[in-house]
Amino acid sequence: AQRVTQPEKLLSVFKGAPVELKCNYSYSGSPELFWYVQYSRQRLQLLLRHISRESIKGFTADLNKGETSFHLKKPFAQEEDSAMYYCAPPLSGGSYIPTFGRGTSLIVHP
Amino acid sequence: EAQVTQNPRYLITVTGKKLTVTCSQNMNHEYMSWYRQDPGLGLRQIYYSMNVEVTDKGDVPEGYKVSRKEKRNFPLILESPSPNQTSLYFCASSVTQGTGELFFGEGSRLTVL
Lengths: 110, 113
Description:
The structure holds 2 protein chains of 2 kinds. Helices cover 0% and strands 35% of the residues of chain A. Chain A is mainly β. Chain A is globular and about 40 Å long. By secondary structure, chain B is mostly beta strands. The relative contact order of chain B is 0.33. In chain B, 0% of the residues lie in helices and 50% in strands. In chain B, strands 2, 4, 5, 6, 9, 10 and 11 form a 7-stranded mixed beta sheet that branches. The model of chain B has no long low-confidence stretch (mean pLDDT 93). Chains A and B meet through strand 6 of A and strand 5 and strand 9 of B.
């Protein structure tokens, strides 16, 4: 099964500080990974996916095959970035049980 | 509008009183899934369905049932709810051949007294 690990339950930073939310994966084959975000009292929604290599709301994530990581980064955190962030493998690719990381709660203080 | 709809959004019930949380999607997705979200534990999968009449257990299926009689609907059934099933539940759907992105419902907050 495709599995990911998010080592940090909570990340607390001040506005304007850089942010890095960690995600490590542990499966073979070509990894395709996603970051989902859940703002307070809202549904989970896709933030960005590895395959598109896009930047959403200032966030980027680079796949590092050597370190088997897909860390989410933003150079200058904003208060509205406060949310729960989940790293997840995709649905396809031989496994239909995408096992989410346990999530990292990001709190950005003013 | 493409969406996943769950009902009810909020429910307070008592131990042992059967309840059903409905989930419906209008995107013709084959795959549907139920998750529960608990503080410190993240998202854990309860059951999933690859297509009509095909369901399988996720990581935490105990105390839950599901059915998939139609492609668009995937209800979650708690035959005899217990307090440890107090949680926030999310339904999600996706195509099985595609980007692999999951589309989530807004969540159903269930409290079992």
